[in-house]
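stage 2 :: seqdesign
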């Protein structure tokens, strides 16, 4: 389990939602739902599992989640995301026929049916997918009791029991044209989540049945009410108008912008996009700018719903997308869900950052205690690199509050030292670094670290004394396994516990400054070898050598280049001829 996962696990909410497990490439490999995200997601990384789950966990490098207001919403969202991403560790029930829909047919005498296919969309209007086929059927049963649509597949020659129960208008015997417009309108409204009138009527019927001691009927009505409530909750996740729409929530506070975009296609949530930006100037303008760039790179929906921006006209003109109002109903609920996630994401990120900062501060404070110095908030570390004195370089890395600051890193060519002399090379670099900081009245480090032992530490101290600077200096010595487990400080060797945070910090500093120096050395060596092969060619100075290096990368490519290639690379024709002749004569 990596540090990213550890930090996120500590900040998971005790709320329902859908979670998405990701591999090292950021691909979603598993989608799940949870009544309690904290308990469910944490369970993957603790305790024993079966073989499949163990393999899944071994490939998880990160995870994300979307908070919902109920476990049922999380279930339907999980269904939609599985269909969208086909995660390899899910049971791939990705065909539409896997999930039940309610369909209101477009026949002359319409019916309500449960179907697992939406392929013939012109023949019916579809609502779903439903999390349970039983819920879908119960909803149809309820609607059939209230609205007198036909129930039979083929219209018979005589009326059936439903006609006598006043649950069918009997097109089989009613030869007059039947107008279903009002019934269809009410059914569509109900399936889109507007069930207030029906629920009020059912609650009244349930109370009357209970007062009349008709307890079985009261229980039946209660179960129907539960089924309706599940259907209404489901509608937050699946919008049944089949319109491609994005729900954009922007939460702006003093110094940050949190944007959450719930992406729906054909009425279903298929993705959740999250980002957090720092405010540089004006939060609303920067949010609009971000959305413009986002839709330059991503497919635009037919329309968007937005919360958190006042100037919607500017946004509409820039994006050239229809912006709808979402003040009531399912669209408002989805927009509220996006806003809740935006707020939570920002708070979560701050908590993660706060925890990381506190851990880093604890680590450097512990390092200060080991060395008996104040907490070294600014650390600068040095390392030299050369091969038998050729192409000698040095590098410096800087850590502030336990975190590397690449903008503060520095590279040095060794100018005054000839041959492999680590002591004098270190003295030159330390002098150049801290004499310059003195002249610029810049901030000095609280601790200097040498990637080496006694020799490098003494070289640094000699220069600091000559500059009248009192800065603690320690050296990182390696053990037989090349691990940074020993510190040389104040003429003493201090062993560092391999399981401590200080060891991890020192190992990171040592590896980073070493890699930085080696990378600089290799770059200089390549340039040096490259330049030496080009020495003596008339008209080819250092700038033109660099030009060739950028264009051809290595000597072999120059040898194989034609005069025309060299000329097109930027060399004058006479110089291109000289270079060509130089290598061709050499080949001969």
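stage 2 :: out
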């Amino acid at each position: 389990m990596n540090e990213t996962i550890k930090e996120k696990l500590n900040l998971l909410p005790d709320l329902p939602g859908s979670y998405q497990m990701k591999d090292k490439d950021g691909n979603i490999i598993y989608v799940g739902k949870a009544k309690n995200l904290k308990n469910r997601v944490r369970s993957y990384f603790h305790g024993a599992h079966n073989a499949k789950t163990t393999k899944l966990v071994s490939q998880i490098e990160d995870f994300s989640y979307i908070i919902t207001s109920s476990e049922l919403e999380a279930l339907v969202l999980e269904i939609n995301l599985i269909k969208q991403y086909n995660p390899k560790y899910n049971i791939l029930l990705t065909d539409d026929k896997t999930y039940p829909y309610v369909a209101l047919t477009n026949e002359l005498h319409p019916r309500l049916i449960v179907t697992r296919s939406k392929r013939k969309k012109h023949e019916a209007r579809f609502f779903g997918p439903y999390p349970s086929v039983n819920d879908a059927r119960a909803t149809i049963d309820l609607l059939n009791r209230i609205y007198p649509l036909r129930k039979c597949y083929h219209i018979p020659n005589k009326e059936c029991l439903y006609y006598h129960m006043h649950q069918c208008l009997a097109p089989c015997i009613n030869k007059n044209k039947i107008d279903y417009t009002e019934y269809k309108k009410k059914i569509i409204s109900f399936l889109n989540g507007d069930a207030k009138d029906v629920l009020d009527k059912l609650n009244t019927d349930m109370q009357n049945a209970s007062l009349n001691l008709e307890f079985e009927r009261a229980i039946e009505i209660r179960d129907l009410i539960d089924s309706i409530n599940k259907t209404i909750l489901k509608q937050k996740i699946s919008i049944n108008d089949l319109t491609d729409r994005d729900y954009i929530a922007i939460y702006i506070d003093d110094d940050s912008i949190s944007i959450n975009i719930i992406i729906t296609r054909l009425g279903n949530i298929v993705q959740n996009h999250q980002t957090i930006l720092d405010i540089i100037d004006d939060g609303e303008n920067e949010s609009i700018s971000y959305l413009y760039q986002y839709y330059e790179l991503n497919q635009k929906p037919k329309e968007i719903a937005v919360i958190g921006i006042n100037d919607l006209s500017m946004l509409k003109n820039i994006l050239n997308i229809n912006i709808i109002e979402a003040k009531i109903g399912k669209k408002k609920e989805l927009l509220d869900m996006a806003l809740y996630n935006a707020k939570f994401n920002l708070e979560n990120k701050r908590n993660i950052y706060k925890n990381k900062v506190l851990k880093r501060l604890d680590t450097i404070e512990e390092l200060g205690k080991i060395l008996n110095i104040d907490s070294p908030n600014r650390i600068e570390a040095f390392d030299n690199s050369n091969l038998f004195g050729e192409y000698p370089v040095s590098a410096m890395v800087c850590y502030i509050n336990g975190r590397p600051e690449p903008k503060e890193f520095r590279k040095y060519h060794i100018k005054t030292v000839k041959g492999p002399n680590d002591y004098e090379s270190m003295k030159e670099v330390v002098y150049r670094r801290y004499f310059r900081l003195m002249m610029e009245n810049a901030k000095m480090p609280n601790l200097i670290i040498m990637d080496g032992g006694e020799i490098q530490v003494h070289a640094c101290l000699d220069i600091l004394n000559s500059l009248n600077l009192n800065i603690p200096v320690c050296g990182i010595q390696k053990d037989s396994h090349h691990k940074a487990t020993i510190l040389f400080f104040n003429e003493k060797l201090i062993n560092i516990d391999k399981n401590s945070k200080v060891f991890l910090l020192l190992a990171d500093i040592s590896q980073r400054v070493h890699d930085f120096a080696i990378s600089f050395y290799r770059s200089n060596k390549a340039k040096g070898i490259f330049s030496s092969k080009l020495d003596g060619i008339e008209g080819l100075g250092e700038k033109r050598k660099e030009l060739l290096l950028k264009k051809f990368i290595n000597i072999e490519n120059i040898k194989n280049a034609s005069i025309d290639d060299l000329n097109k690379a930027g060399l004058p024709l006479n110089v291109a001829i000289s270079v060509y002749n130089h290598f061709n004569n050499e080949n001969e």
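stage 3 :: structure notes
- The two ends are 60 Å apart (CA to CA).
- The mean pLDDT is 81.
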